[in-house]
Design brief:
34% helix; alpha+beta; 7 helices; globular; 209 residues; 4-stranded antiparallel sheet
Length: 209
């Protein structure tokens, strides 16, 4: 007969401290996710509760709400979903790591943020074409020196080019040669993401309570 005891569950609050400041969306501690990346203003932390990603020191919830408001028409933002399969697969190569971003949203983090202004997320809809593009670019980022080179060339994003000219030339060649193979992998990944609500790009709609 085994005398082993169950492992105690440690609440997230136990990790709170100066190195793990509170999440602007839900108040739970933020934990390190990515070291500083080219084009971003600092390391990226993430909330294990609502999934929000934060670049550098977290601001107030109002700051995150202002950035959310810049992501689409009033009440209908389109977010690069940090809870997507593409983000999990890509990590530092995730196409959603746009240079100007300070926050990387999930549907749950948005739900908690907009509740502060008496709104609810009425619907969240997968954007298949944009999501496929983001997943495709995430895969290409794994073989390029720069970030989001292909999408920027198509006018659908902002690239962080490689530092050296020879690296940029290799990136351009790799983006062309590997475009079709990457697309063939991205298709089932993003399709699964759409089915299981883990799509790379999601359009949200808000309503007042």
């Amino acid at each position: 007969m085994s005398n082993s005891q169950p492992t105690p569950v440690v609440p997230l609050e136990a990790g709170a401290g100066p190195e793990n400041p509170p999440c602007p969306a839900c108040g739970e501690p933020l934990f390190g996710w990515l070291s500083p990346q080219p084009g971003l203003r600092g390391p990226v932390s993430r909330c294990e509760s609502c999934g929000l990603g934060v670049v550098g020191a977290p601001g107030e919830p109002e700051e995150a709400l202002r950035e959310l408001g810049r992501l689409g028409a009033e009440g209908r933002p389109r977010i690069a979903n940090r809870a997507s399969y593409a983000a999990a697969l890509g990590s530092a190569g995730w196409a959603g790591l746009e240079p100007a971003a300070g926050y990387f949203f999930t549907v749950e983090s948005v739900r908690r943020l907009v509740a502060r202004r008496d709104q609810v997320v009425k619907s969240s809809r997968w954007a298949p074409a944009a999501g496929l593009g983001a997943t495709w670019q995430t895969l290409l980022n794994s073989v390029t020196f720069g970030h989001n080179v292909a999408l920027a060339a198509l006018g659908r994003g902002e690239a962080v080019p490689a530092r050296h000219r020879w690296q940029r030339r290799i990136d351009a060649l790799a983006s062309v040669v590997l475009a079709i193979p990457a697309l063939l992998i991205a298709l089932p990944v993003e399709l699964a993401g759409g089915i299981f609500r883990r799509g790379a790009v999601v359009t949200l709609r808000f309503e007042l309570l």
